[in-house]
Design brief:
There is one protein chain. With 400 residues, the chain is α/β, with parallel strands linked by helices. It has two domains: 2-175, no CATH class; 197-387, TIM Barrel (Alpha-Beta Barrel), CATH 3.20.20.370. The chain contains 17 helices and eight strands. It has helices at 2-26, 36-41, 46-61, 83-88, 108-122, 124-129, 135-145, 151-154, 162-175, 209-219, 234-242, 256-259, 263-281, 300-303, 307-314, 339-347, 367-382; strands spanning 197-205, 225-229, 246-251, 287-288, 321-322, 327-328, 355-361, 386-387. Strands 1, 2, 3, 6, 7 and 8 form a six-stranded parallel β-sheet that branches. The longest helix is centred in the first third of the chain and has 25 residues, at 2-26. It is elongated. The structure holds zinc ion (ZN). Zinc ion (ZN) is lined by residues 203-204, 250, 254, 291. The site of zinc ion (ZN) has 5 residues, from β1.
């Protein structure tokens, strides 16, 4: 019941905040940003954001924070009246009095941690969920999995703008009390190894080869990415996720004449696949691969010349990052290759690239692909590659 009231309070505040934030921020005597455009480029400092972090703390706690005595010699009540409250509440960490540096620009990694500290103070189940993890990693996984801050930003040193800070705080309020998981972050690692990386990707419908592919990946301790088409064996799809692979969306029908008729037709088809996968996984996949790639010309026959560029630009609005490939195993080009030929196609065209995204298929006829996997995995490792699953944090490989 307590949770429900809190949630209700949060929802009411969130509804109000969305429209009031502009007003609240612009009306502030110590932070006057005159236009909406300026909010998007103005980098807030830690002291300025403290006020809003304390506000979030008050919302979640259903309480009003007492005015704190100012023990800091480098913070004046005129410029940063909430900075010391944020410190004494444990929202921001300082190395010692006088070293808080409220004038320093707020960075995403710090902001992620601040939000995480507030949430875990009032939502013990979130604290329990991440109890085993080091705070910085926990904070990143929390803000990314709940869709509060994108993976590419969350643990970085990028500077937070005023507009972004307001949006992130609004999203955090709206997410309470359920803090529903929106993105799979199992593949996320803030300690991604240095050096060249290779990504094995398997497209199209699951088949009797898929469990065998999963066995090989497990035997060689490799995490890969499956761009799934159609409906398959639910247990196999669940197994992909359980074993640490990324499950991504390819299409439902894979029928060019259907999906590339129009933008509406394409996204309707993707939604069928996405709903299906969400039902199995419990979260919505965020990576997508266009059948034929993002620059295919076949689509012109059905949806005209501008369709692919339109679909590419609509991706983010639909919640997807799209991935093409820069290395083709050749297993779909109509030629019958032996396993060593498939492996050769992959290994001779890495050309020292820092990032290699390899196109392969998991449908029933691709026996050579399956049999080539040990050679491909060993060969890539010999070339110095670390094999990883694609995640939202991976710099996208795109034709355009
Ligand atoms: Zn395909």
């Amino acid at each position: 019941m307590k949770k429900f009231v809190k949630g209700l309070l949060a929802a009411v505040l969130a509804a109000g905040m969305l429209s009031q934030n502009v007003f609240a921020f612009t009306n502030d005597e110590w932070l006057s940003i005159s236009t909406f455009e300026d909010r998007k480029t103005y980098n807030v400092d830690r002291g300025e954001v403290s006020k809003y972090l304390v506000g979030l703390y008050e919302n979640f706690g259903g309480l009003q924070v007492e005015i704190t005595q100012n023990d800091f010699h480098d913070i004046t009540n005129e410029t940063h009246p909430y900075a010391m409250q944020a410190y004494y509440l444990g929202i921001v960490k300082a190395y010692g009095l006088g070293e808080f540096a409220p004038q320093a620009a707020m960075t995403y990694d710090e902001f992620s941690c601040d939000i995480y500290r507030i949430v875990t103070k009032f939502y013990p189940e979130i604290a329990a969920e991440y109890a085993e993890k080091e705070e910085k990693q926990a904070a990143k996984e929390f803000v990314v999995s709940r869709g509060l801050i994108p993976a590419g930003k969350a643990a970085g040193k990028g500077k937070v703008t005023l507009g972004d800070a307001a949006e992130i705080l609004d999203r955090t309020r709206s997410a309470a009390p359920a803090f529903e998981v929106k993105y799979n972050t199992s593949g996320l690692d803030i300690n991604i190894p240095e050096g060249p990386k290779a990504y094995l990707t398997f497209d199209d419908n699951c088949s009797n080869l898929t469990p065998l592919i999963l066995d090989t990946l497990r035997d060689y301790d490799v995490k890969a990415t499956f761009f799934v088409a159609g409906f398959g064996d639910e247990n196999v799809i669940r197994r992909m996720a359980d074993e640490g692979h990324t499950v991504a969306v390819h299409t439902y029908t894979h029928d060019y004449s259907q999906i590339y008729r129009s933008s509406e037709a394409f996204w309707a088809d993707i939604k069928i696949e996405s709903d299906y996968l969400t039902g199995i996984l419990g979260y919505t996949p965020t990576l997508l691969r266009f059948p034929g790639g993002s620059n295919n010309t076949v689509s012109r026959r059905y949806g005209g010349a501008g369709l692919m560029s339109r679909l590419r630009s609509e991706c983010a609005d639909h919640g997807y990052i799209y991935f093409d490939w820069n290395n083709d195993s050749g297993d779909a080009n109509g030629k019958k290759y032996s396993p060593s030929e498939i492996a050769g196609n992959v290994l001779y065209s890495t050309k020292g690239k820092e990032t290699v995204v390899i196109l392969m298929h998991q449908t029933a006829p691709k026996v050579s692909t399956y049999n080539a996997l040990p050679q491909i995995i060993k060969g890539l490792r010999d070339q110095g590659y670390t094999l990883l699953p694609l995640t939202e944090a991976t710099p996208p490989v795109q034709f355009n």
